[in-house]
TrEMBL record:
The keyword Nucleotidyltransferase does not apply. It is found in: Cytoplasm; Nucleus. Residues 296-335 form the MYND-type domain. This is Protein-lysine N-methyltransferase SMYD4. It catalyses: L-lysyl-[protein] + S-adenosyl-L-methionine = N(6)-methyl-L-lysyl-[protein] + S-adenosyl-L-homocysteine + H(+).
């Protein structure tokens, strides 16, 4: 979803192939972004726009007045099945298609409050009850809703408010007497029970774990850097003649130390797999759950209680505040373009949003710099007053030459400070000369089509709501902003950061839940972008909403560079694979210690795919026919035969997982133990399938409450994860957290295990 949909890409590439040779040469040899844009955009024809419009219409992003009733009924079905999470999502879809102050939106909010109540989300349930009442919830149905409100207040120990709500309900019953057999009689009985509950002041559940989590997420930098915003004082910004800008340790850094904590300057939610729906009445409304249904489009907070945009059905938020902020910053312009932006891809959306946010900074400077680019002048960077030390590399370590020189560092302000702002984003390299002519043509034509839609939707769109003093004439020409968007679109291939999260699956009623890392959004982090790549990095990155956190993954000596992994990690790819990936996406050859010292990988493959001899247990080696690594052992076997064995074993493991998911724990354990025995006969101890089996066994024993056995199997799974992903990987951190949970839950039974067996 980063790039445009396949249909538009194929269409544009075919158009490129049909261009006159002279036109292709003009785009290929253009030296500036403005030349690329003007040459390319001149070929955008009305039939191209019509084709793009047809693609965009495949996405249902407007409000359909018939949709709320459909989604409410679908949500009711899930509610009856006790699948309250999916019910809440479907009610949210109904809310998104409803207009404010209508019975439709009030009914969807009320039904969603019931699902949230069953999920134990009482504060959120209260908010939905208030929303339902605010939007005109029918008077005849209010007693049941108010009773739910009172129950929430009691559970939250807000007893005074609960008593007042109960008093209001009693007054309502007194004013409107009804037959004994009516639903009101049932409500009155529930009301009496609730009053007794208040008087008894029963013990209520604590929320300490959530509080602890929030406190941990709120950890800030101990001492912020005066020269680099969002960075600690343990690092400084330097330049290298080969690598450009980089971060260097100013002191010895210990593992786990917080180095950078930066909020994304811009982020756009990744909608996930969201192909356009086929035409037809039955498929008009989509019941599939995507990231857009679960995470706030502004702050990326997970929620089942979305607040919709009043103008479209696509944009959803965790609160009224996020919705209002998004509207003021960018969504007032994006709102009518939802289908087009989904068609053009996340990168194009990020580029537009970056340009829109430029309005809120020194727009005069931004426009001047872009105009200089259009007029073939060198883009002037702000003069920097900072002093930087020059270093050179020696076997992966930086040694100070000792000469301090004054130089201009791109992205710094007049005082030499590098900040999280548009100036820093603009300074990121676009690598224009490295992108293929076809890719530049695709990007330029997409930007041109987007700008024409912006102009048609609202000619002064880019000047609406400006906080800076800007005259309309300054921004009247959308070509200026188009060049800026094209620059950002090309920047993103090397500078975009995938924002990830751990997503949990499985209902609250299920004994076994699953989780995994998913890509949630694409963001731009100017400070994080300063970190250069290493296939064996000395930091790890994690995300909380739109905030990226960089921590030291190992000891870093004073003067050493701070490295981040761009994706190709030594534990995931061979050296050749990493180099190919880095050249194609980032346009450089990696010379990190991992690449410099790596020996050619054996033909047997990586350790997490290795086979071992059934006779002597040594690792097998070879290509089509594998032979035992032990010269004294004559064993040999076909790779195809082993691959078939792995496939059969994976099917058996999947059957064990299904038993586990269905709560048949003892059967699942017996089945998985047989799978493990089969695996040990021909797979290495670090094979990915072995790790999967051990993880399933750990889950099964945890569900039975046998925490010691669970921890034993989880530790074996950890060894496989470490080999596959690295000791400082997010995946390793996730597994360690699972182990910590197991040890905490069985703290009495696991204490001896922790002291004697655990070696981390």
């Amino acid at each position: 979803m980063d790039l445009p949909v396949d249909e538009w890409k194929a269409y544009v590439l075919q158009k490129w192939s049909l261009l006159p040779k002279s036109a292709q040469v003009a785009v290929s040899t253009a030296e500036t972004l403005s030349e690329i844009f003007f040459h390319s955009s001149s070929f955008l024809q009305s039939e191209d726009e019509k084709f793009l419009k047809r693609l965009s219409q495949g996405y249902l992003v407007g409000k359909d007045p018939k949709a709320p009733c459909f989604y409410r009924e679908e949500g009711n079905k899930k509610f009856q099945e006790k699948n309250y999470s999916e019910a809440a999502v479907l009610y949210s879809k109904g809310v998104s298609h409803s207009r404010p102050n209508t019975e439709d939106i009030s009914l969807c909010y009320a039904n969603r409050s019931a699902a949230l109540f069953r999920l134990g989300q009482y504060e959120t349930c209260l908010n939905d009850i208030i929303r339902a009442l605010t939007h005109g919830y029918p008077e005849r149905l209010r007693p049941k809703l108010l009773l739910r409100k009172a129950e929430c207040l009691v559970t939250l120990r807000r007893l005074k408010e609960a008593s007042q709500t109960i008093s209001d309900l009693e007054s309502n019953f007194t004013a409107k007497p009804s037959p004994a057999a009516s639903p009101f009689q049932i409500l009155q009985e529930n009301l009496c029970c609730l009053k007794m509950k208040i008087q008894g002041k029963e013990n209520l559940p604590e929320t300490f774990p959530m509080t602890l989590t929030k406190d941990f997420e709120g950890v800030d930098l101990t001492e912020e850097n005066e020269e680099i915003s969002s960075a600690s004082s343990s690092v400084c910004l330097c330049t290298d003649p080969l690598k450009g800008r980089c971060l260097i340790a100013t002191k010895d850094i210990v593992p786990g130390e917080l180095l950078v904590k930066e909020d994304a300057f811009v982020s756009v939610l990744n909608p996930g797999k969201m192909p356009p729906l086929p035409q037809g009445l039955e498929s008009r409304w989509d019941t599939r759950v995507t990231n857009g249904d679960l995470y706030c489009h502004k702050c990326l907070q997970h929620t089942l209680a979305m607040v919709p945009c009043h103008g479209c059905s696509y944009a959803k938020y965790c609160s009224q505040e996020c919705m209002q902020q998004a509207w003021e910053l960018y969504h007032s312009i994006e709102c009518s373009l939802g289908g087009l932006l989904l068609t053009l891809g996340v990168f194009c959306h990020v580029a537009l949003r970056l340009t829109l946010l430029a309005r809120f900074e020194d727009v005069h400077k931004v426009v001047r710099r872009i105009c200089d680019e259009i007029n073939n002048k060198d883009v002037c960077l702000p003069e920097s007053k900072s002093l930087v030390e020059t270093f050179n590399y020696c076997q992966g370590e930086r040694e100070e030459i000792g000469e301090v020189v004054q130089t201009q560092i791109p992205g710094c302000n007049l005082n030499g400070k590098y900040e999280n702002n548009y100036n820093a984003v603009f300074s990121l390299l676009a690598h224009t000369e490295n992108h293929s002519p076809e890719h530049k043509f695709l990007c330029a034509l997409s930007v041109s089509a987007l700008c024409r839609q912006l102009e048609a939707a609202s000619p002064p769109a880019l000047t609406t709501g400006l906080k800076a003093a800007v005259t309309p004439e300054l921004c009247a020409d959308l070509n200026v902003w188009a060049v800026a968007m094209l620059r950002h679109l090309l920047q993103l291939q090397c500078n975009a950061q995938a924002i990830t999260t751990i997503q949990h699956t499985g209902s609250k009623e299920s004994m076994i839940a699953d989780s995994g890392q998913v890509r949630l959004a694409t963001g731009i982090f100017p400070v994080v972008s300063l970190l250069n790549h290493s296939c064996s990095p000395n930091t790890s990155v994690s995300f909380t909403g739109t905030v990226a956190t960089i921590r030291a993954a190992q000891q870093i000596k004073k003067g050493q560079e701070i490295f981040h992994c761009y994706g190709p990690h030594e534990s995931r790819m061979s050296g050749a694979e990493r180099q190919q990936k880095l050249r194609s996406q980032y346009f450089f050859d990696c010379s990190c210690p991992a690449c410099h010292c790596e020996e050619p990988r054996a033909a047997a493959g990586p350790r997490w795919e290795a086979f071992r001899c059934n006779s002597c247990r040594a690792l097998l080696q070879g290509d089509d026919v594998l032979s035992c690594g032990n010269r004294a052992c004559p064993e040999s076997i076909s790779r195809n035969h082993l691959a078939s064995q792995v496939q059969d074993l994976q099917q058996q493991v999947e059957m064990g997982w299904k038993l586990l998911r269905n709560g048949k724990l003892e059967q699942a354990i017996m089945w998985l133990l047989r799978c493990r025995e089969d695996a040990e006969s021909f797979l290495s101890a670090e094979h990915a399938v072995v790790g999967e089996i051990e993880d399933h066994l750990a889950r099964a024993y945890a569900a039975l409450g046998d925490w010691k056995k669970s921890a034993t199997h989880l530790q074996k799974s950890l060894q496989v994860v470490e080999v596959h992903h690295g000791s400082s990987s997010v995946e390793m951190g996730h597994e360690l957290f699972k182990l910590a949970q197991v040890l905490f839950n069985g703290r009495g039974a696991c204490l001896l295990f922790l002291l004697t067996d655990l070696k981390l």
